């Protein structure tokens, strides 16, 4: 996609200016994946050069569950590391080589790897936060709520949803059954029982980690409506949570993080400081 090429060029420019972090690339976090093809997903770590025991953000990228790459988002890792937040950015098996369940299990494996290894990169394994944009927002919300993915949700101190898609895929797919478009027939399968299993809104509970939400007012209507429904149900357990609306379309909700002075960094770090 053209937008991804633009992001790579801009992030490369910022990389040259930023000496406050160290990137370690292409670390394997799984020996194999239960994908439809042989898959050995990897991750990048952005280590802050500050003292040890820093909070950690695991960022999961979006892209309709069938596109995207960890290397596009170096700007986010660099900017967070500069602000004292160690950042982990993984790849995961994309559709049609894996379903939502494959992806969610791999996100859970990233969390496990982070707990076991992040101290080597100046991160605190007891201060792990999940962040995701679009499809990545869906995956972190699913892993953080559906108990089949994490036995202990206390591992996650908070969830940061940036224009998250797919928070209620069940309702969406009941109206628009999955087709080959965007490989949805593989991502969600054609089994309606899986659609509910894939929908974070049905797993919200008192065990759900604290959530911070930002949503674009110019994004896709389905994202706006599902985010509203999600926070309405979430308020049963976390009554103070509200959607932080921003006057942006879907892609700019992510590309704004290219700039280290973007106000969202301040708000997210405030959320991290409260809950770490």
TrEMBL record:
Residues 1-22 form the signal peptide. Pfam families: BD-FAE. The keyword Membrane does not apply. Gene3D superfamilies: alpha/beta hydrolase. Keywords: Hydrolase, Signal. GO terms for molecular function: hydrolase activity. Residues 49-234 form the BD-FAE-like domain. It comes from the Bacteria. This is Esterase. It comes from Polaribacter glomeratus. The lineage of its organism: Bacteria, Pseudomonadati, Bacteroidota, Flavobacteriia, Flavobacteriales.
